[in-house]
Write a structure and sequence with these properties.
The protein has 170 residues and is an all-alpha fold. Helices cover 75% and strands 0% of the residues. The mean pLDDT is 83.
Protein backbone atom coordinates (compact mmCIF):
# COMPACT_ATOMS: atom_id res chain seq x y z
CA UNK A 1 0.00 0.00 0.00
CA UNK A 2 1.44 3.38 -0.94
CA UNK A 3 1.58 6.40 1.38
CA UNK A 4 -1.45 8.04 -0.23
CA UNK A 5 -3.61 4.95 0.32
CA UNK A 6 -2.36 4.57 3.87
CA UNK A 7 -3.16 8.23 4.63
CA UNK A 8 -6.64 7.86 3.17
CA UNK A 9 -7.35 4.64 5.08
CA UNK A 10 -6.30 6.28 8.36
CA UNK A 11 -8.46 9.31 7.55
CA UNK A 12 -11.46 7.09 6.80
CA UNK A 13 -11.10 5.06 10.00
CA UNK A 14 -10.68 8.14 12.18
CA UNK A 15 -13.59 10.21 10.88
CA UNK A 16 -16.22 7.96 9.25
CA UNK A 17 -18.46 7.79 12.33
CA UNK A 18 -18.40 11.57 12.86
CA UNK A 19 -19.14 12.15 9.19
CA UNK A 20 -22.09 9.76 9.28
CA UNK A 21 -23.52 11.38 12.42
CA UNK A 22 -23.27 14.85 10.89
CA UNK A 23 -24.72 13.67 7.56
CA UNK A 24 -27.62 12.01 9.34
CA UNK A 25 -28.40 15.23 11.21
CA UNK A 26 -28.25 17.20 7.98
CA UNK A 27 -30.54 14.99 5.92
CA UNK A 28 -32.48 12.93 8.48
CA UNK A 29 -32.28 9.72 6.40
CA UNK A 30 -29.92 6.85 7.11
CA UNK A 31 -29.48 5.70 3.50
CA UNK A 32 -28.91 9.23 2.25
CA UNK A 33 -26.43 9.87 5.07
CA UNK A 34 -24.45 6.81 3.97
CA UNK A 35 -24.50 8.09 0.39
CA UNK A 36 -23.29 11.52 1.51
CA UNK A 37 -20.42 9.97 3.44
CA UNK A 38 -19.46 7.88 0.41
CA UNK A 39 -19.52 10.92 -1.87
CA UNK A 40 -17.47 12.82 0.71
CA UNK A 41 -14.89 10.06 0.84
CA UNK A 42 -14.75 9.90 -2.95
CA UNK A 43 -14.05 13.63 -3.17
CA UNK A 44 -11.55 13.35 -0.33
CA UNK A 45 -9.72 10.55 -2.16
CA UNK A 46 -9.53 12.63 -5.33
CA UNK A 47 -8.19 15.62 -3.40
CA UNK A 48 -6.17 13.95 -0.65
CA UNK A 49 -3.01 15.66 -1.90
CA UNK A 50 -4.50 19.06 -1.03
CA UNK A 51 -4.69 18.06 2.66
CA UNK A 52 -1.38 19.20 4.08
CA UNK A 53 -2.14 19.26 7.80
CA UNK A 54 -3.50 16.10 9.42
CA UNK A 55 -5.05 18.20 12.21
CA UNK A 56 -7.23 19.91 9.61
CA UNK A 57 -8.63 16.61 8.28
CA UNK A 58 -11.91 16.63 10.22
CA UNK A 59 -12.90 20.21 9.32
CA UNK A 60 -11.82 19.53 5.73
CA UNK A 61 -14.01 16.42 5.53
CA UNK A 62 -17.00 18.13 7.17
CA UNK A 63 -16.71 20.97 4.68
CA UNK A 64 -16.77 18.48 1.82
CA UNK A 65 -19.80 16.80 3.41
CA UNK A 66 -21.69 20.08 3.81
CA UNK A 67 -21.01 20.91 0.16
CA UNK A 68 -22.12 17.46 -0.98
CA UNK A 69 -25.35 17.90 0.96
CA UNK A 70 -25.90 21.31 -0.65
CA UNK A 71 -25.25 19.80 -4.10
CA UNK A 72 -28.21 17.47 -3.59
CA UNK A 73 -30.54 20.43 -3.65
CA UNK A 74 -28.78 22.18 -6.52
CA UNK A 75 -29.19 19.14 -8.79
CA UNK A 76 -32.51 17.76 -7.73
CA UNK A 77 -36.02 19.11 -7.96
CA UNK A 78 -38.26 17.27 -5.56
CA UNK A 79 -41.68 16.12 -6.72
CA UNK A 80 -44.41 17.20 -4.36
CA UNK A 81 -47.36 14.95 -3.66
CA UNK A 82 -50.29 15.90 -1.49
CA UNK A 83 -51.06 13.44 1.28
CA UNK A 84 -54.02 13.18 3.54
CA UNK A 85 -53.23 14.67 6.94
CA UNK A 86 -53.75 11.44 8.85
CA UNK A 87 -51.46 9.41 6.55
CA UNK A 88 -48.50 11.70 7.20
CA UNK A 89 -49.26 11.76 10.91
CA UNK A 90 -49.41 7.96 11.21
CA UNK A 91 -46.25 7.44 9.13
CA UNK A 92 -44.27 9.80 11.36
CA UNK A 93 -44.89 7.61 14.41
CA UNK A 94 -44.17 4.34 12.63
CA UNK A 95 -40.42 5.04 12.74
CA UNK A 96 -38.89 4.36 16.19
CA UNK A 97 -36.27 7.07 15.52
CA UNK A 98 -39.07 9.61 15.68
CA UNK A 99 -40.12 8.71 19.19
CA UNK A 100 -38.77 9.65 22.59
CA UNK A 101 -36.51 12.41 23.83
CA UNK A 102 -34.06 12.18 20.91
CA UNK A 103 -36.87 12.71 18.44
CA UNK A 104 -38.19 15.63 20.48
CA UNK A 105 -34.79 17.33 20.44
CA UNK A 106 -34.34 16.57 16.73
CA UNK A 107 -37.72 18.10 15.84
CA UNK A 108 -36.95 21.16 17.94
CA UNK A 109 -33.53 21.58 16.30
CA UNK A 110 -35.13 21.50 12.84
CA UNK A 111 -37.39 24.36 13.92
CA UNK A 112 -34.34 26.55 14.59
CA UNK A 113 -33.35 28.96 11.82
CA UNK A 114 -30.47 27.58 9.75
CA UNK A 115 -28.12 30.33 10.97
CA UNK A 116 -28.52 28.95 14.51
CA UNK A 117 -28.99 25.25 13.75
CA UNK A 118 -25.83 24.81 11.68
CA UNK A 119 -23.32 26.18 14.23
CA UNK A 120 -25.04 24.20 16.99
CA UNK A 121 -24.77 20.98 14.98
CA UNK A 122 -21.13 21.66 14.17
CA UNK A 123 -20.38 22.16 17.85
CA UNK A 124 -22.43 19.33 19.31
CA UNK A 125 -21.94 16.67 16.65
CA UNK A 126 -18.67 17.78 15.10
CA UNK A 127 -16.93 18.84 18.28
CA UNK A 128 -15.76 22.07 16.68
CA UNK A 129 -14.61 25.06 18.70
CA UNK A 130 -16.12 28.52 18.10
CA UNK A 131 -13.05 29.52 16.10
CA UNK A 132 -13.30 26.44 13.88
CA UNK A 133 -17.01 27.00 13.32
CA UNK A 134 -16.32 30.64 12.46
CA UNK A 135 -13.73 29.57 9.88
CA UNK A 136 -16.07 26.94 8.48
CA UNK A 137 -19.01 29.32 8.10
CA UNK A 138 -17.05 32.43 7.18
CA UNK A 139 -18.13 34.26 10.33
CA UNK A 140 -16.32 35.99 13.18
CA UNK A 141 -15.88 33.98 16.40
CA UNK A 142 -17.94 36.51 18.36
CA UNK A 143 -20.83 36.14 15.91
CA UNK A 144 -20.66 32.34 16.24
CA UNK A 145 -20.69 32.58 20.03
CA UNK A 146 -23.81 34.75 19.80
CA UNK A 147 -25.45 32.33 17.36
CA UNK A 148 -24.68 29.38 19.64
CA UNK A 149 -26.07 31.21 22.68
CA UNK A 150 -29.26 32.13 20.81
CA UNK A 151 -29.57 28.62 19.38
CA UNK A 152 -29.47 27.11 22.86
CA UNK A 153 -31.99 29.66 24.17
CA UNK A 154 -34.39 29.00 21.30
CA UNK A 155 -33.93 25.24 21.57
CA UNK A 156 -34.69 25.34 25.29
CA UNK A 157 -37.79 27.48 24.67
CA UNK A 158 -39.00 25.11 21.93
CA UNK A 159 -38.51 22.08 24.15
CA UNK A 160 -40.26 23.78 27.08
CA UNK A 161 -43.18 24.76 24.81
CA UNK A 162 -43.45 21.21 23.47
CA UNK A 163 -43.38 19.77 27.01
CA UNK A 164 -46.06 22.20 28.19
CA UNK A 165 -48.24 21.46 25.18
CA UNK A 166 -47.86 17.72 25.79
CA UNK A 167 -49.04 18.13 29.37
CA UNK A 168 -51.86 20.52 28.48
CA UNK A 169 -50.32 23.47 30.27
CA UNK A 170 -50.53 26.03 27.48
Amino acid sequence: MNARQHQFEALTRAHAADLFRFAWWLCGQEALAHDLVQETMLRAWKNIDSLRDADAAKPWLLTILRREHARLYERKRLDLVELEDNVAENAAWADPERQGRTAEIRRAMWKLPKKYREPLLLQTLGGFSCEEIANELGEKPGAVMTQLFRARQQLKALLDDDREAAHGLS
